Every structure is written in structure tokens, then in C-alpha cells.
């Protein structure tokens, strides 16, 4: 998308399309493989009632089963707290409903690319505080929110110097331990359920200690 075109001139909320890519893994992302912006992705921009503008915004990222009822509950709570929401439709944009059975249909690298392309988009909105855009996510989306703080990804995907102001990964999978141990200085708060054993807390603790 050209920097000279502001998609919010004609409308301020609702559905917006943007270009993204389909890298298979971080190696592809960092080395420009399959990074042509040929993938159409869409998201829904929602403002809270009586929003104080410019408004802080959260980009929520769903997990492998797509958008679920619990995600919507969190988003309503965020709106009630005064945050705008840009809800990315990673799966629907690619003709996918769920990747629970096949994690290669839409990868973590692709979802992170979507998130940064969305960050570039919403940073242009006149009613959004571009210095207060955070990212949160659940499970695979939690991994997206987590690794979106890794500096090499920020350096590769940022287009106009944008970065996320805060990261809220919820039960993220943190299986990747990068040798390049540089991370954003933005605050990160990681949440796990006490009984969650699908994405082990122990792995995340090891990553946090490493960071």
C-alpha cells in the first residue's frame, strides 16, 4: 500500500483490506522468501462507544481454531475499557476455517506478517494513537504476540518505523529459541492458565530467562 494513499479518508471504521504475504517459516520471512505482498487479508476495525480520540488500539490474534466465543468476550472487554480493536481474519482471508489438524495451512510466520502489515495500516488512522498500538493473542496467536517482540522480525517487517507498544501473549507456544537474543523494549505480560499443559508454562519460563 502506498504511503500516499490513506484508506481512512472515505470511512473510519468497518472492514479494511490490506496486502500481506505467506512465508512458511521465520527463515523465509527474514530472507525475503515468499514475501511478495500478494495475499489479500482483511480485518475489522471497531471503536469503543464515546471513544477518547486519538484512541489506543489492540490487534487481537486468534489461535489455531480461528475466532472463538472467548476471543470475542475479551474484545468486548477491551472495547469497554476504551481500546479500539483491529480484528484480523487470517484464516478466512486464505479460505481456511481451522488449522488444528494441519498447522502448515497458515503459519506463525504468515500471521506475524499479517500483524505487522495491519500495524502499518492502522497507524495511519487519524483517530488512532499510533504510539499506543498493542498486540495480544491466544495460543498460536499468543506465539504471534510473543515473537512480534523479536527485534530481527521488527527490523524486517516494519515499514515506516512502527512497533507494537505492548505485547500480551496468552498461553503462547514458545518452541523457537533464536540465537539472536535481541528483543523489543516494549512491555510484555505473558498469561497462562494454571491447568494448561498443551502449551507448557515451563517452556515459556525458560524463554523468559533466556531473554
Explain briefly what this protein structure is.
The chain is of the alpha/beta class and 211 residues long. 27% of the residues lie in helices and 20% in strands.
Written overview of the protein:
- The protein is an alpha/beta fold and 211 residues long.
- It is built from 6 helices and 6 strands.
- It has helices at 26-30, 69-80, 108-122, 140-147, 151-157, 201-210, and strands at 14-20, 39-46, 55-61, 84-88, 128-138, 166-170.
- A 6-stranded mixed sheet has the order 1-2-4-3-5-6, with helices on both faces.
- It is globular, with a radius of gyration of 16 Å.
Tags for this model:
211 residues, alpha/beta, 6-stranded mixed sheet, 27% helix
Largest sheet: 6 strands, mixed
Q: What value does the Rg take, in angstroms? A: 16 Å
What is the helix tally? 6
Averaged pLDDT: 90
Beta strand %: 15-25%
Gross morphology is: globular
Uncertain stretches:
none
Topology (SSEs and partners):
Layout: E1 14-20, H1 26-30, E2 39-46, E3 55-61, H2 69-80, E4 84-88, H3 108-122, E5 128-138, H4 140-147, H5 151-157, E6 166-170, H6 201-210
Parallel strand pairs: 3-4, 3-5, 5-6
Antiparallel strand pairs: 1-2, 2-4
Helix pairs in contact: 3-4
Amino acid at each position: 500500500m502506498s504511503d500516499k494513499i490513506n484508506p481512512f479518508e472515505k470511512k473510519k471504521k468497518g472492514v479494511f483490506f490490506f496486502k500481506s504475504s505467506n512465508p512458511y517459516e521465520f527463515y523465509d520471512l527474514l530472507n525475503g522468501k515468499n514475501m511478495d505482498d500478494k495475499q489479500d487479508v482483511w480485518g475489522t476495525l471497531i471503536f469503543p462507544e464515546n471513544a477518547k480520540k486519538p484512541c489506543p488500539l489492540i490487534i487481537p490474534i486468534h489461535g489455531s481454531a480461528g475466532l472463538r466465543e472467548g476471543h470475542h468476550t475479551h474484545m468486548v472487554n477491551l472495547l469497554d475499557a476504551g481500546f479500539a480493536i483491529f480484528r484480523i481474519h487470517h484464516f478466512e482471508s486464505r479460505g481456511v476455517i481451522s488449522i488444528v489438524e494441519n498447522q502448515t495451512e497458515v503459519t506463525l510466520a504468515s500471521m506475524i506478517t499479517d500483524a505487522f502489515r495491519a500495524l502499518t495500516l492502522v497507524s495511519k488512522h487519524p483517530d488512532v494513537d499510533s504510539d499506543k498500538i498493542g498486540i495480544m493473542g491466544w495460543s498460536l496467536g499468543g506465539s504471534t504476540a510473543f515473537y512480534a517482540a523479536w527485534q530481527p522480525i521488527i527490523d524486517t517487517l516494519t515499514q515506516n518505523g512502527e512497533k507494537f507498544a505492548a505485547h500480551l501473549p496468552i498461553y503462547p507456544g514458545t518452541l523457537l529459541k533464536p540465537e539472536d537474543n535481541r528483543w523489543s523494549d516494549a512491555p510484555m505480560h505473558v498469561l497462562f492458565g494454571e491447568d494448561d499443559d498443551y502449551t507448557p508454562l515451563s517452556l515459556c519460563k525458560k524463554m523468559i530467562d533466556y531473554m
